[in-house]
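**Backbone geometry record:**
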Amino acid sequence: MRWDGIKNRRDAEIGQFPEYSDCSSFATWCLWNGLVLRFGLGDLVNGAGWTAGYTGTMLEHGLSVRYPSNVLPGDCVIYGGGPPGVHCAVVVDLVNGTPMVISHGSEPGPFYLAYDYRPDVLSLRRYI
């Protein structure tokens, strides 16, 4: 059920969104929309052929972005002390140099928030 967005090929460009997702499947679906639907690329996010993964596998892929000032839209912010019990959000904008994220899954959301709305930023990751 959490992979509804990808399994059912929901295309954000035409107003289709997952009916249910947790944080990592939502972030993966967002990136899948750009990487697969637009460019036909393989799974750079979880390494599972766009069929599985969680925030822990997201930590194993992509590139680390060292400083928040280098974050770009499409990057992900991973929170927590490490798997299990981690959360992720997708960077969608920069406002006065502050990365803004869409966070969905561990709260009712989706919410538009500053990337550091949680004090436990573990990693900034780039998959694109």
Summary: The mean pLDDT is 93. Residues 12 and 33 are 7 Å apart (CA to CA).
